[in-house]
Structure formats: C-alpha cells, structure tokens
Amino acid sequence: MNKKEAIMEVVKLLDNHCHGCENRYSRDLSYCWKKCEIGKRLNTLGGFLGGKVVGKQQKQRTPEQWDDICKITVKLKENGMTYIKIAKKFNVSVGHLRLQLKRRNKTK
Length: 108
Description:
Blueprint (H helix, E strand, L loop, with lengths): L2 H14 L13 H5 L2 H12 L14 H16 L4 H8 L3 H10 L5
Protein name: Zinc-finger domain-containing protein
GO molecular function, one term: zinc ion binding
Organism: Bacillus thuringiensis serovar andalousiensis
C-alpha cells in the first residue's frame, strides 16, 4: 500500500464510520484507539503515514527499579561513562536520569 491509498482509506473510514459514530465528540479517545476496530485501523494507518501509533505506552518503572538503575549509574559514572551513554543504555532521557539521581541524593 502506498501513501495515496492509505490516505484514501483514512478518508473512506472517516466518512463511512466516524462521522456517524456516537463516540465522535467524546473526549475519551482511548475508546477509539483500544476498543473500536475502525479506530484501531485508523491508528495503524496513521503510523504508516509517519505519525505516532497511539496506545502503545511503556510500562512505568517502579521505585525499586529506579533504585537499581541509580546504583548502577553511579558505578558506571565512577568508571568514566557519560550520562548520555548511561541514559541510552537504560533507554531513558538524560534529564530524567539525572532527576531520579537527584531524588535519591546520588549526584555529586
């Protein structure tokens, strides 16, 4: 499927289903992305067209997991690793990593 076909399918789905849907004006978009088959299809088409697929949220880390990450971070930092590389290792932003270190009084 190319982009033109995807756009045409999006327009067709919106015209045939979404304009008559009772949840159209609802502020709870999670219904569309998680429960409605048409909404799920629109979501995947949006991802195909370069947008972000909604509804795939990462699981939040627990405080215990952050404690472990911070302990490892301190050891890696002492060995000369930069915060940027450490953040990439744990798949977090540098700012959030430093915030978690600050909360646990692990910064120098």
